[in-house]
Fold these 2 entries.
Entry 1:
Amino acid sequence: MTNTSKTGNVRLEWLDKFREINRSFPRTEQLLDYKNSGRKIFGWLCTYVPEEIIHAAGILPIRISGYSHETDLDDGTAYLYVNNCSFSRSCLQLGLKGEYDFLDGVVGGSTCDGARRLFDLWRNYIGTPFHHVLTIPRKYTERAHSLYHYEVEEFTRHLEEFLGTEIPDEALLESIKLYNETRQLLERLYDLRKRDNPPVTGAETMEVLNASYRMPKEIFNEWLRNLLEEIEASGNAYEYRARLMLVGSVLTNAEFIKSIEDQGGIVVTDELCTSTRYWTDQVVLDDSRSPRESVARRYLNNFPCARMYPSDERFDRIMAFARDYKVDGVISQIVRYCVPYSHDLPLLTKKLKGMNIPVLALDVEYGTSGSGQIATRVQAFLEMLEGRKK
Amino acid sequence: MTTVQDTNKLKSIVRACRLIQRMIVAEPGHRRSQVLYYDMLTKYFTRLLDAHENGDFVAAHTVFFPSELIYGMDLVPMHTETSTWMTALFTGECSDILTEGSTLGLASEICTPNRGLAGAFSLGALPRPDVMLWSNMVCDNTAKSGELIMEICDCPGFFIDRPFKDSPREIEYLTGELGDMVTFLEEQSGKKMDWDRMSEIVERMDRQIELVRQINELRKNVPTPFSPIGFLDLVTIDYLFPGQPEAIEYLETLLGELNEMVSQGKGAVEDERFRLMTLFIPPMYLVNFLEKICGEYGAVSVIEPFFTYWGEGRLDPAKPLESSALKSYMIPEMRMYGPLDERALNSITDCAEQYKVDGAIYFADVGCRHSCATIKIFKDTLNDMDIPVLTLDCDVVDHTATSEEEVKEKLERFFELLEDR
């Protein structure tokens, strides 16, 4: 067998709708209609930015991402220099070209050097009206939670000042409910992939994930509910050479995953800021905390980025996912100059080796399709994994 | 990962410092500050070399880490990045430690000071620290370097989480982090923080910053009295000797010498023609060459907005921890590594005006993503003032990144351009 094969073979119509959103992003018909109806849209740059606060203010939050394919990044490179990650350069280039000119605000976090500088240059060179950057602590201590809560309060105040109106707790509670529902639905999608023969591929899942932060959640949730029903009814089931987990830097290109799956490896789970780190962990409301504090706590405690300390928190979660999804091998894809993940790789590899899970480490550029040398290395990795099963 | 105890890199640094010091002393009319400088370096690295033999507790720490607190507890600090830089500066050779860093699995995009550091510890080229202390003051590389070094050296560690911005709430958070770090060090070393000593250190740090400000004032003179690449000495003093008596002695001596030169109308270079702003650290292995070529062309770095141009504020000896936290936000570098707002950009325009700058050189360290992302915006800011900027691609440690000839050619062309204007 050289690639994944499918029984059932039912085309998923709701999946095509998600694909269509991604194909035309950022200037989707949906977003432009939203904007033309007089409502505001904000872009956010990192998963540590609390979307619920923006949503509760009556603004549509969308994730800023770059080109989902390989392309020259001349403008992005001229502004951010060649040694910044291609994700930051790609996002900035789209911004410089006016592709995000419908945004009313940009919100960033002090998460990594690339994200920080992307925010700095966006603020200086792209005329988006509202800008805010949150300090994101790197620890999980009570002191860190208190600081991040303060940052979320400050962000709220800044937003209220910009809008000239208060953001009531009732609105925030509604937003929390909506976003928690998104997380639950995405978790259901992931649960399907735990099956011995998953009914969806990693590439298909990535299409859903990409759309999740590119459209109103109210519509997304409805579409995803429909897709989940459609998948269950389809009887689709994939066979494969090995079950894989993807870890590492930001990734939005479903084609990259498809190129792995075309060779027979099925990506059953992942640890990416565009996937699991986006949907895991609910906002837990409790009487001892205000809704804003609950939001802040969720964002800091969420499945951590490699920026957080101690790294074991991230490693433990990866290992738990690897166990739950019965992973045969891990593919680490690190965008060049993505330093936090590069530093973690030797330690993570050692941990996974301790679980008898081999790691294929790929240096990639954001948007890469996974052809050429990458394909050859994936092929060899799959052969090795198959050899271990015999 | 095993560590072979071999401190040859430090021995090389100490040997080189002693040799340079002897050469300076042998020169007629030498400056006393230069002798003091190399004496300080010799003592710093010798103390480190002999630490374990003397039963001292070694605390390794990353750049901009508040090492004054280590001095306050009478422990031996080891400035990790500076140890890598000094290796490049004094031995000109870092390929062994860089290769070892790669062997450990660190990608080539990880900057050479940090990749080399992990390699140096792994090879035993730096002594094993008793604790590793690190922080996110600067960049992701410093924030992420500690855990691997803890693993390589099999030592405990402490990470200081420094907030990105400098609101009172964030400075308070950092103060709390520093307090926790002191508690950690007390537990690990068995020594107690001497708060009286710490207050004295803070008092001297405040004086130290004031002295650098006074030295910078003198550098405004035409001709400027301070040597073309001399700012690296000021940076090193701040990195290695915060609040130390020898730092005060050095800076007071230097200030006296510069005052004398100004009163005599003497410049650092014979015929000052180009007053330059330096926007990042030059490659260590080219420092002597740069000093020479600047002398030949009458070029001199008169100000470095993000390395010597301290922010406003005074430290309070009665509040040592708070002062240490505050200092972390006053450090010139932090205007570049923090939010790139008006403060950062205004410091460039202010410096350009006050120091009568003709041109600027940006040493674009290929390993430093954080700084390189500022090249465009800094260049635009200076070009708006009709000040040309030369960007030189290089690596602060790895000599294979650029050659002397290449740099020479670019500098000569830049000086010609300045001449034509």
Entry 2:
Amino acid sequence: MREVIVLGAGMTPFGNSDQSQKEMFARAAIEAAEDARVEAKDLQALFIGNVLGGFEEGQINIAPFLAAEIGMPLTAPSARFESACASATVAIRHGVLMVASGVYDLVLVGGTERTTIMGTPLATRTFAMGSHSEYERFSGITFPGVFAMAAHLYAHKYDIPLDRLKRSMARVAVKNHHNGTMNPLAHFRKEISVETVLEGPMIADPLQLYDCCPFSDGAAALVIGAADKFKGHASKPISVAGVGQGSAGAVYAHRDITRVKAREASIKEAYRQAGIGPADVDVCELHDCFTIAEILAIEGLGFFEFGQGSDAVDRGDTALEGSIPINPSGGLKAKGHPIGATGAAQTYEIVKQLRGECGERQVDGAKIGVVDTLGGDFSTVCNLVLRRN
Amino acid sequence: MKSYPLPYTEFVKRMKSGGLTGLKCLDCSGYIIPPNAVCPECGSSHLETHSFSKNGTLRTFTVIRVGPTGFQVPYVVALAELAEGPWVMGNVVDIDPAKADMAIIGKTVSIGYRLVPNEGGEGPDEGLAFTFAIQE
């Protein structure tokens, strides 16, 4: 397999947008192409994450529209990937494998999504479509509800008083909002306190409003290529050192939902390909759709022992200046969560971190970064390991 | 596998006649509910239908305060472990959602079902949800 590098990255501001998914993606894609110093006509394929375009804008089969929008050639295949919130990372992994295997030399990958146009009732209904449509859906389960059940099970399993766990969860939100204040593209750029979280309205016990990421609009894109063809072309090439993707079934089939089996399978493969372990990682963007989700993820990725994640948060180990900085971008929590674009935005942040271009939220000397994106109710996890050469 | 071992429509029909029917793996003796095309434990497609006991233990829960279109909040969603081993998702019934707290984890529950009209959603006109009644 050939070495694959990221040549360029682009991203729109995240938040509420009055622009269409195509318009947002065009901006991110053209920025990525300019950053990579390549022309759209030279891009050989487009793989894009987009989850709910049909519900949001009445637009399906969006990929060829995006390719045409930015002037890609007729000969370039384009396809939309749908793996719920992990869609963009799955699309990126697909592009990486296509370049690694020699099918293409230069590919555009990314994601676009305009969730806010749906309004909360439709968004809640469509997000719940990630649950098993026959055997879970009619319980009225919601996306926050699944993670709420994980939080209760975590407190019970590890014998942590719920009040104490909730304070640790709140510290995840406080940390990610703090990081978000330093990210000009973030949806939320304001500090919050533990009290802000604990005083918020209840969404799904024990998750309160500030335990949950927002619905956002946005797009992000990356140009990836074969290192042997383009290494001298990019000013600061970042290598894709490893990729992984795991698949699991329904929530009920997981049984103990404090352990995300798809993540454990995915990251093991990504670390193996990269020839590293969790102790080698300098910075990580992971799937903090809910505060408890970040605690489960820092354990599942191997940064902390199972059951020790909330203590690690309390100690500040995951802060910018901690032993393993998590979500310097602000994460889904503060940067925002345009579902089909999220994985591309996480990858954008890691690329910028490894290039040393993140200003006041820069993790000093970061050389190895991990992307972790979860899709649906623990059913898909996709990971990337990126490295600065 | 000649055909899907216990299709959803057949599963619902059996629940409506008072049973809780799932599958048993003839190779590893594992119990499977809701049905699956093959045994999730060993991959075998040598499965037979099996009548489950309807007894379980509540493992975790949440109270939904913001729900999808058509669901009246608040209500309790939970995961219960059946006596035979598998876990299922459902609603804790006969409990005031305001009183659902950590103390209900570990309680013995009896498994039932309710039919839920599908108001404005995709798919069939009605769906099935498991119910959990806490046994004092």
